Amino acid sequence: MSAITTIRPALVGKLNERQVLRVIQSRGSLSRAEVARESGLSAPTVSKAVASLLKAGLLEEADATELARGRPAPKLRLATTSAQVLGVSIDVGHCEVVSAGLDGSLHDDTLTIPTPATYPELLRALEVAAKTVMARSGITTLGLGVSLPGLVDYRKGCGVLSPNVPITNGRAPATDLAELLGVECTLLQESHALCLAERHYGLARGMDDFALLDVGAGVGLGIMSGGRLLKGRSGLAGEIGHFTAVSEGGRRCGCGNLGCLETVASDSALAWHASAKLGRAVDVDEVIELAKAGAVDLRAELREVAGYVAVGVAAVINLFNPATVFIHTPLFEIDPALFDLVVSKAAERSLPPSFAECTIVRAKGSKRQGAVAGIIQHLTDSVAPELV
Ligand SMILES: [Zn+2]
């Protein structure tokens, strides 16, 4: 009994902080009185929760310049000038490091580095880039999120099997960067990062049930169900890229199998076609540039890849009955008409009642934005956990 009475005030305090954060996250800058009105909490309760959140660095008060403009009461907002977070996206050809406010607004300081050939080199390059970005702003960095392609085991906090960036297999880049940088770091599977980016800063705001198909070097899938990411037992759910799409004569996939969906429905598939056509090895970054510039005629190959992307979309629609499927891919930057082709092919391959209930949309968010969303969620959960 005594244990319960000791715990309860702390628990209530955390719930109140969560409520205050939620109101400010959805409404922007508010005074304490406005927070009280919006949240339904009493003024003293709001003051106490706000003091705790200011101390944790998640909130800040409007600066003196704004106060001088005659605002009646100090406004509270998510920290944007007093603190920042970092987002790191690890990808096949290159990695990106960016900083952002606690409201998720990206700063104009993205550093792009070629993905090195070994994990120690990758870690060193990310450490240098992160320290450069951290030093540039001169404000406190509260944490860093890492988006990683391939299978991520959330129980162990490490990459398990990345067919396209195998140097991260068995590695824990967020744990390693936390040690090197001295800030809180969290790891996200890249399709999950894209889901968070879309939900917090993209076109899925307010949506609790949607799917996101990520067609890049590989093919990934994120499922947001009831407002939560579907992770499976340890985070390995959603690997649609390794469904067999070509049963006879398929190409070897990075996972070791033959004919996986991502061998025919990805940037890598397009790069394979371009390499065959040009008689030299073309990587995923180069094929997008070549195709955009029209330097090589890949129209037939693009249609074939888009047809297989539609197979993936139809599978997602039939399996999960989502209200919306977002597609994230640079292929649509080559030719926006490919989107309509994917939608029409997906319509042919989906069950009509499921397709009728689903909208297919081009995703807006980026992996680095997802890494930022991931660390903000992690910090929010650490300070004020959501209790269900
Ligand atoms: Zn595979």
Account of the protein in words:
The protein is an alpha/beta fold and 388 residues long. The chain has 3 domains: 2-78, Arc Repressor Mutant, subunit A (Orthogonal Bundle), CATH 1.10.10.10; 83-196 and 368-383, Nucleotidyltransferase, domain 5 (2-Layer Sandwich), CATH 3.30.420.40; 203-363, Nucleotidyltransferase, domain 5. 45% of the residues lie in helices and 19% in strands. The protein is built from 14 helices and 15 strands. It has helices spanning 2-27, 32-39, 43-56, 64-68, 119-137, 173-181, 190-201, 267-278, 284-293, 299-320, 331-334, 337-349, 352-356, 367-383; strands at residues 30-31, 59-61, 75-78, 83-89, 94-100, 111-114, 140-148, 151-153, 158-161, 184-189, 210-215, 219-225, 228-229, 324-328, 359-362. The chain has a 5-stranded mixed beta sheet. It has a 5-stranded mixed beta sheet with strand order 13-12-11-14-15, sandwiched between helices. The model has no long low-confidence stretch (mean pLDDT 90). The chain binds zinc ion. Zinc ion is lined by residues 163, 242, 253, 255, 257, 260.
What is shown here, in short?
This protein is of the alpha/beta class and 388 residues long. The protein has 14 helices and 15 strands.
Secondary structure topology:
Blueprint: H1 2-27, E1 30-31, H2 32-39, H3 43-56, E2 59-61, H4 64-68, E3 75-78, E4 83-89, E5 94-100, E6 111-114, H5 119-137, E7 140-148, E8 151-153, E9 158-161, H6 173-181, E10 184-189, H7 190-201, E11 210-215, E12 219-225, E13 228-229, H8 267-278, H9 284-293, H10 299-320, E14 324-328, H11 331-334, H12 337-349, H13 352-356, E15 359-362, H14 367-383
Parallel strand pairs: 4-7, 7-10, 11-14, 14-15
Antiparallel strand pairs: 1-3, 2-3, 4-5, 5-6, 8-9, 11-12, 12-13
Helix pairs in contact: 1-2, 1-3, 2-3, 5-6, 7-14, 8-9, 10-12
The chain binds zinc ion (ZN).
